[in-house]
Design goal:
Structural class: alpha+beta
Radius of gyration: 25 Å
Helix content: 25-40%
Largest sheet: 6 strands, antiparallel
Distance between the termini: 58 Å
Number of helices: 12
Order of helices and strands: EEEEEHEHEHEHHHEEHHEHHHEEH
Length: 348
């Protein structure tokens, strides 16, 4: 289980994995505020070691746990053991930093990394997560604001695949995930998505749901509809993506469009596309409509399901973002015209 530490109600940017007989300390990378990860590595490691001592946990040793050193015997990767572990925390941190720099390095090499991935091996049972983590805290709006539509879409897929979660059933509201009345608990969807965005397991105590919360705002912005628990689906929201109502065709093509109009999928695909390529552009004609205002530019793009033979999809098929293309409205219409032409040709 992934987790972070909390000090005085504030989460520390240093991530760990909780296992039955050890704790993995993730390495640091980048700079704070510029795509960095685990930027408070040393502070977090010191706090973790202090809490292990306060719980009377017996540390057997600490060794480097990176893929680059897979072929090295474990005893050669150890950076602290025995009397090292009895030193004051500040001294122990210096010992760890110094030894991390040289393990696996060629003799005489300069530099080295003092914030590498570590494994702290415990003799006996590891103390409870609650004791190590510190008082649970609500995550800031800034952190929760990192959740994108593609994170939410992935979370919905995981929940539909019956992945277990700690959020329980919804109480006051449900989130509609399609036009067929299927529902999921809003906090479970957002919690899974936040975990993917932040890189650690997010629990129900990390954020609040309800109208006006970052949870509900993110879901609604992504195109999902939140309705009262056990309430009927309002007829006014049965259809989504009205900009695609131009299409005519038979049941097979309407099924195709239904896959493209699945709730949340268009926004998720666009967010993923922007993350991968830095901007939206048509995958056919390469137009990016850069001269248009932002809102107009967004409206110029639609998503298209690559698969032509939608009829072969089983009932309940869940579209993957990789199945979709970003197309401009013109190329999307032409693509569906070709689909109809091929279908008519096959019938004649």
């Amino acid at each position: 289980m992934r987790f972070l530490l909390v000090e005085n109600g504030v989460p520390i940017d240093a991530h760990y994995e909780f296992e039955s007989t050890s704790i993995v300390v993730h390495s640091r990378g980048g700079k704070k505020g510029i795509g960095g990860k685990n930027t408070e590595y040393r502070k977090g490691l010191g706090l973790l070691l202090e809490r292990l001592r306060s719980c009377d946990a017996l540390i057997a040793n600490v060794h480097i746990d990176t893929n680059k050193l897979t072929g090295l015997p474990t005893e050669q990767k150890v950076v602290a053991a025995d009397k090292d572990l009895q030193q004051p925390i500040n001294v122990l941190l210096e010992i760890l930093a110094k030894r991390m720099k040289v393990v696996g390095q060629n003799e005489g090499a300069k530099g080295g990394n003092s914030t590498r991935r570590l494994r702290i091996n415990i003799t006996g049972q590891v103390p409870s997560l609650e004791k190590l983590q510190g008082r649970p805290v609500n995550l800031s709006h800034e952190m929760l604001g990192l959740v994108r539509s593609d994170h939410l879409y992935s979370a919905v897929t995981r929940l539909l695949n019956q992945e277990s979660h700690p959020f329980g059933n919804s109480v006051g509201y449900d989130v509609l995930i399609d036009d067929f009345g299927n529902r999921l608990p809003p906090k479970a969807v957002f919690g899974f998505a936040a975990g993917e965005a932040l890189g650690f397991d997010v629990g129900p105590y990390h954020f609040k749901g309800g109208q006006g919360s970052p949870c509900f705002q993110a879901l609604e912005k992504a195109g999902y509809v939140i309705v009262p628990k056990d309430g009927a689906v309002p007829t006014a929201i049965k259809k989504v993506n009205p900009d695609q109502e131009w299409t005519e065709g038979d049941a097979q093509e309407r099924n195709h469009l239904g896959k493209e109009r699945a709730r949340g999928v268009a926004k998720a695909k666009k967010d993923e596309f922007r993350r991968l390529y830095g901007k939206l552009f048509c995958e056919v004609c390469k137009s990016d409509f850069s001269k248009l205002a932002e809102g107009e530019r967004e409206a110029a793009f639609e998503v298209h399901h690559r698969a032509v033979s939608i009829a072969q999809m089983a009932a309940g098929h869940r579209t993957k973002l990789g199945d979709l293309q970003c197309l401009c409205a013109n190329c999307h219409r032409q693509t569906h015209w070709r689909i109809r032409a091929e279908q008519n040709k096959s019938k004649s």
